[in-house]
Amino acid sequence: MKPKKDYADIPGTYVFDGEHSQKGYPLNMFCMSLNKPENRDAFRADPDAYLAKYPLTDDMIKAIKERDWLGMLRLGGNIYYTFKLAIFDRLTMQAVGGAMSGITEEEFRQMMIDGGRQIDGNRYTSEQQ
Amino acid sequence: MAKITAGLGTSHVPAIGAAMDHDKTQTPYWKPLFDGYGAARDWLAETDPDVVIVVFNDHASAFSLELIPTFTIGVAPEFQPADEGYGPRQVPVVEGHPRLAWHLAESLILDEFDMTIANEMPVDHGLTVPLSIACGQPKAWPFKVIPLAVNVVQYPPPTGHRCFSLGRAIRRAAESFDEDLKIVIFGTGGMSHQLQGERAGLVNKEFDTAFLDGMTGDVDHLTKLSHTEYLREAGSEGIELVMWLIMRGALADDVTEVYRHYHIPASNTAAGLIVLENQT
Questions:
Q1: Cross-chain Cβ contact B200/A108 below 8 Å
Q2: A97 interaction partners in chain B (CB closer than 8 Å)
Q3: What is the average pLDDT value for chain B, to the nearest integer?
Q4: Catalytic pick from B97, B193, B261, B263?
Q5: By CB distance 3.0 to 4.6 Å, which of A74, B101, B166, B257 could disulfide with B75?
Q6: What is the DSSP letter of B198?
Q7: Any catalytic annotation for residue B125?
Q8: Contacts of B197 in chain A (CB under 8 A)
Q9: Half-sphere exposure of A115 (CA within 13 A, CB side)
Q10: Nearest chain A residue (CA) to B30
Q11: In chain A, what residues touch B192 (CB-CB under 8 Å)?
Q12: How far is B119 from chain A (nearest CA, A)?
């Protein structure tokens, strides 16, 4: 069965399919490396030298250094991988969720307490135009 | 023979484990969630299984993009809690049941489910948080555990229908084991949530309620939900719910709902829990 990309019209969602995964492989594998304490230490000690070990594009390096969470997704990042960089920074998932959706960590946390982002109006990109 | 008598579906949000590890379960934020877990813990303690099969997903801990197996069964005598960047959770080592796990692996492969077999597999919050939810903080987990990891990170995960069929095959395989064992199966992940993108924080209570209802109702409908429906309605990470269908498939056709709990939020997620028993 040929895969259909009928999820392309879901707003604000970066489906980690083959195309996305292929593009983001070096970025995600850099993030993966932060699972090891010795790698976290090396990245902390000299970020540029550490990043040079991975075949990252200039855009990826810029997004990593700026902690541009949305930018990393657009470059093929997967949230479970990019979140390893957030853990490295001691950030919470709410902080990252807020950064990706343009609100503060506290606003994001409160949105969740209030029942989360509502589904109505968020199913199709066409609802948001 | 070994018999799967019951199933438990639960979210596996890392922050739930962290709240327990850091003694925050009675804070105003967490108390309503944890208050709902007591009944499930009592039920599991009373059920007292010999083995629990935990269907879960790895979150770039044991596996990475280097190798992406769809279904992996852990056959080791023990599984260590993984370091997810904070250092490993301080929870008991997970003891496996190699003989039953190998029996399941061999039976499933001959039944045309092409399992990947893991002798080494650190287990992350996807597996340890459900154990914490179901057992609290014991010195050792009170049963053996067979981890069954499902890829739901790299799209596409296996279909809901395939997951349900695997559950059926697990039931058949268990029943051909040569030792009398009581097994409970956990399906974990979900419920609706989206961690990524501008739509981060999405929750869909209506979808989740229908999914919980479907566990004892129109299961066939649940197995036909398309990936795009999960992504759109339950959020990009809500697609983890296909793992609950392995649990449901491993149970009898007719099951009784013993208990459910649903709470928004646990961190960025709608947290759900359901306990199902086979009708006899």
A1: yes
A2: 195, 200-201, 268
A3: 97
A4: B193
A5: B101
A6: T
A7: yes
A8: 12-14, 70, 73, 100-101
A9: 7
A10: A113
A11: 116
A12: 20
Furthest CA-CA distance within chain B:
52
Residues B94, B99, B105: CA angle, nearest 5 degrees: 95
Q: Which residues of B27-61 are buried (b: 16+ CB within 10 A; e: fewer)?
A: eeebeebbebbeebeebbeebebbbbbbbbbbbbb
> pLDDT tens digits for B138-187?
999 999 999 999 999 999 999 999 999 999 999 999 999 999 999 999 99
Are residues B220 and B245 in contact, defined by beta-carbon separation less than 8 angstroms?
no
Going by their DSSP bridges, the two strands B51-56 and B71-74 should be labelled as unpaired
Taking alpha carbons only, the member of B246, B66, B65, B226 closest to residue B149 is B246
Our CA angle for B122, B241, B134, nearest 5°, is: 60
CB contacts, 8 Å: A11 with chain B: 198-199
Helical spans, DSSP H, in chain B: 14-21, 31-35, 38-47, 98-110, 125-135, 160-175, 205-214, 219-223, 227-229, 242-249
For residue B274, list its beta bridge partners: B9, B260
pLDDT at residue B80, rounded to an integer: 98
pLDDT digits (tens, 9 = 90+) for A19-77: 999 999 999 999 999 999 999 999 999 999 999 999 999 999 999 999 999 999 999 99
Q: Do A117 and B203 touch (CB under 8 A)?
A: yes
What the block records as the tokens of A85 is: 């960089």
- Residue B59 a catalytic site member: no
Q: Could you tell me the two tokens for B124?
A: 């992350």
d(CA A28, CA B271) in angstroms, rounded, equals: 27
Q: What is this model's ipTM?
A: 0.96
Distance CA B70, CA B163 (A): 10
**Nearest residue of chain A to residue B194 (CA atoms):** A13
